Amino acid sequence: MTIKQLKQHGRVFFLSSMIVIFFQLGVLLADDSPTFETSSEYALALELLETGDWQEIDKGFYTIVRHVSEESIKTALIDKLEEETSRHQTAGRFEDHAHMEFYMNLAGVVGQMKDDPRIILPLINALGVVGGMYIPTTLAHIGMPALEAVLVKYDEPNVDLRLGILITLQEMFRLDSLNKRIHQTSTNLQAVQDILLRGIDDSNHFIRRRAVKVIGVLGDRSFADRLVFIAQNDPYYWSRNTDNQRKDWSQLRYPVRESAQEIIKSWE
């Protein structure tokens, strides 16, 4: 989902939907039934995933998700996530709300397979669809293998993917163990610094502000001079005054500048 679509959809509605989705997933994943009752049930569930009818796909999904510990099921779900991510990238949108909800459910279940390294790249690609919604936390807890993978993907042109990667880095560096390791690994630290330099110069203000926040969590004081410049000069602003014909300069907010100012103050 694009940044613009998130605004149109409404963050409160979106987040409340996610709470419901993850409650449902928690119930499903708590089911410890070890196998399908019949092999035909298994085959039918997999077939339903490939239909074009979202109600039928949901039936298949909720059947096989109860058996996500089985290797063939893991493979089917990972493949389906990659397929739906590609579908969204091509169309630029979800077909409808049911499609979006299915995708969120699917990404959530794949994200539960933390011990399977195959999930890393599909989850990173899914960042380009869902931005910073819950996937960054999963990738953060995977640790260094996920870090190395996200660093490679940052150069792609998808704004939502870049934003999701920066949110992932922020979540990663909030973990003290990973933060210490990145400072001890010169190659990865240089790669992170290069991304952050590009981030704070990005034309998109969401990207710039998030890059500033990552710098703060990383605690990289080599950016101190750049933060001072951003705190004084970043051009993005919004006004509390909704009358565009009468711009009240006392009502302007500069969110990127403010984020930089907060970090500078915390370093004093």
Number of helices: 15
Largest sheet: 2 strands, antiparallel
The count of β-strands is 2
Structural class: mainly alpha
Low-confidence stretches: 1-38
Computed over alpha carbons, the radius of gyration is: 21 Å
The dominant shape is: globular
Strand order of the largest sheet: 1-2
Mean pLDDT: 80
Number of domains as seen in the coordinates: 2
Helix content: over 70%
Strand content: under 5%
In whole angstroms, the N-to-C terminal distance is 39 Å
Order of helices and strands: HHHHHHHHHHHHHHEEH
Key phrases:
single chain; 268 residues; mainly alpha; 2 domains; two-stranded antiparallel sheet; 2 strands; disordered N terminus
Structure overview:
Helix 4 (54-64) runs parallel beside helix 6 (97-111) and helix 7 crosses helix 9 (144-153). Mean pLDDT is 80; it is low at 1-38. The chain is mainly alpha-helical and 268 residues long. The chain is built from 15 helices and 2 strands. It has a two-stranded antiparallel ribbon. It has 2 domains: 1-113, no CATH class; 152-268.
